[in-house]
Amino acid sequence: MNISQLFSLVKANPMVSFLITFTVTFVIWMYKENKTVIQNDNKFNFDFNQKKALQFGQLESAISLYIKRTNEKNEQKLVETLGNCSPYFSNDLRKIVRDYYKSYDLQTLYTVYSLVQVEIDKLHKEATDQFHDFKTKDFPSFLLRLYKPAVPILIMLASTVLVIVFFMMERQEPTVAGKISIFFSGFSIFLGATFLFLLITGLIDRSIKMKRDRIAIFLILLLNALSVVSVGFFEFATIGVVIQVIVVIVMFMYLSKRKVVLKV
Predict the structure, then answer these.
(1) Three-state SS across the chain?
(2) How much is the pTM?
(3) Tens digit of pLDDT for each residue in 227-250?
């Protein structure tokens, strides 16, 4: 079918024209909404990190002053600053600070001091990366900014095509067991493709690191390998999905431990 025949088909079928117009309008609207959400999230994260960096910088200064001049005035300033920073503490840092409250041991304070400096360096690196991403004008960065809002749309479109294809296959399958295998095979592909999209996005925006998160990357690739097996061998689709669910659970346990977030 050439372009002129396609236009003729659209003109002859108002419903087709309406569906095309509605779909295009919906995709554009969803892209703009996703872009706005991402920009708001980035702004919130940047502002939060700036406030956190300011509080931790004041805490670093208060600890340093107290270590150099141990007196009641500096100790009171230190305790006040610790209290102001408490909403930003990690669980590990909060435990050590509570240990310090119990004993007011100088060695424990040195540990707090070291962890605060590590946190400040981390915040500085994140701020530098965000500023670099904002200021960079090269073509890959431009493509990334275009690509990120489209990820949910691509997943939705791919899922729609997947549902249609497997629905047609299910209609042609005469046995109940075959229908169940086709269903699980389709779900397996959807699961693998979703995490593959998230992996690609994470690698592009550097929220996932090749060396640091190689276990998570391996698990996502394993998910997709199981998807391929489920498509090639429908009879193993049910078992494949069960294994995939186990892999997903293991992966989320790993990600929560590593504090890595897969962003859509």
Answers:
(1) CCHHHHHHHHHHCHHHHHHHHHHHHHHHHHHHHHHHHHHHHHHHHHHHHHHHHHHHHHHHHHHHHHHHCCCHHHHHHHHHHHHHHHHHCCHHHHHHHHHHHHHCCHHHHHHHHHHHHHHHHHHHHHHHHHHHHHHCCCHHHHHHHHHHHHHHHHHHHHHHHHHHHHHHHHHHCCCHHHHHHHHHHHHHHHHHHHHHHHHHHHHHCCCCCCCCCHHHHHHHHHHHHHHHHHHHCHHHHHHHHHHHHHHHHHHHHHHHHHCCCCCC
(2) 0.60
(3) 888 877 777 778 888 888 898 888
